[in-house]
Design brief:
Order of helices and strands: HHHEHEHHHEHEHEEEEHEHEHH
CATH architecture: 3-Layer(aba) Sandwich
Radius of gyration: 19 Å
Family: Belongs to the adenylate kinase family.
CATH superfamily: P-loop containing nucleotide triphosphate hydrolases
Largest sheet: 5 strands, parallel
Strand content: 5-15%
CATH class: Alpha Beta
Distance between the termini: 32 Å
Organism: Zea mays
Strand order of the largest sheet: 2-3-1-4-10
Number of helices: 13
GO cellular component, one term: cytoplasm
Helix content: 40-55%
Structural class: alpha/beta
InterPro entries: Adenyl_kin_sub, Adenylat/UMP-CMP_kin, Adenylat_kinase_CS, P-loop_NTPase
Pfam family, one: ADK
Length: about 280
């Protein structure tokens, strides 16, 4: 882990590679075997050592939700760059003020800032004895993907997809409890199917009574900012999808509905067995 963090910084200014075109596969054989093995064996450190996954997906698609559940299930640390940025925003000083200007305008945080925050997080994890990781929100640009490819072996990249109208509604419905910090979503999304396809229903994730009066909205969750974030994401991150397709490491997963349905189908796509631990993760 420390080697990864040091190499990320060392390679940041020099990483240059060529992207080659290739066909994507649903789930590479090596990753499929690894996922199934981890699912059977449970959550020991040996399992965590072998899991090095990353999540891609537009803002609001649910990367944090599914990465966190897999993290708990497999005993692997969940490293979300969005959380790293928010922690930095909460710190006093001029850096947090400059960072706030970027975030509130719906712009992506620069590679240099993200790489620095991630490196620091990996070093802290190594000091705690963490093994393996599930990345959430990194890599987000081609440069980040190239740097990461040069210093560690990502086994699998899970690309979550959701219709844009549902994405916008989910982002606008996000709420956080100002007291406990738990995240919720007040949006109830019911969309007709496209071209004869199945309709989509995403129920709200409502807070318990003790949190109802303490809900706050993120400053950057406005319709204008959300739509700009989606445009920026597609411009910068679609090439990253091609990068991992070329390496046969990309699993494309379309969110079919609410969390219980989607979680079950994601485990099926990963060929992870549905043990008692997994059932409890859906609750």
């Amino acid at each position: 882990m420390a080697g990864v963090s040091r190499a990320i910084r060392a390679c940041a200014a020099t990483s240059q590679r060529t992207l080659v075109a290739a066909s994507a596969v649903a789930l590479p054989k090596e990753a499929r075997v690894k996922a199934a093995t981890v699912g059977r064996r449970g959550r020991g450190p040996e399992d965590g050592r072998r899991v090095q996954w990353a999540f891609l997906g537009c803002p609001g698609v649910g990367k944090g939700t599914y990465a966190s559940r897999l993290s708990q299930l497999l005993g692997v640390p969940h490293i979300a760059t969005g959380d790293l940025v928010r922690d930095a925003l909460a710190s006093p000083g001029p850096f947090s003020k400059k960072l706030a200007e970027i975030v509130n305008q719906g712009k992506l945080v620069s590679d240099e800032i993200i790489i620095n925050l991630l490196s620091r997080r990996l070093e802290e994890g190594e000091e705690k004895g963490e093994l393996g990781f599930i990345l959430d929100g990194f890599p987000r640009t081609m440069r980040q993907a190239e740097i990461l490819e040069g210093v560690t072996n990502i086994d699998l990249v899970i690309n979550l997809k959701l219709r844009e109208e549902a994405l916008v509604a989910r982002c606008l419905g996000r709420r956080m409890c100002s007291q406990c910090g738990e995240n919720f979503n007040v949006a109830s999304i019911d969309i007709e199917g496209e071209n004869g396809g199945a309709p989509m229903y995403l129920p709200p994730l409502l807070p318990p009574p003790q949190c109802e009066s303490k809900l706050i909205t993120r400053a950057d969750d406005t319709e204008e900012v959300v739509k700009n974030r989606l445009r920026v994401y597609h411009d910068l991150t679609e090439p990253v999808e091609g990068f991992y397709k070329a390496r046969q490491k990309l699993l494309e997963f379309n969110i079919p509905g609410g969390i219980p349905e989607s979680w079950r189908k994601l485990l099926e796509a990963l060929n992870i067995e549905d043990s008692d631990n997994m059932r409890s993760a859906v609750a």
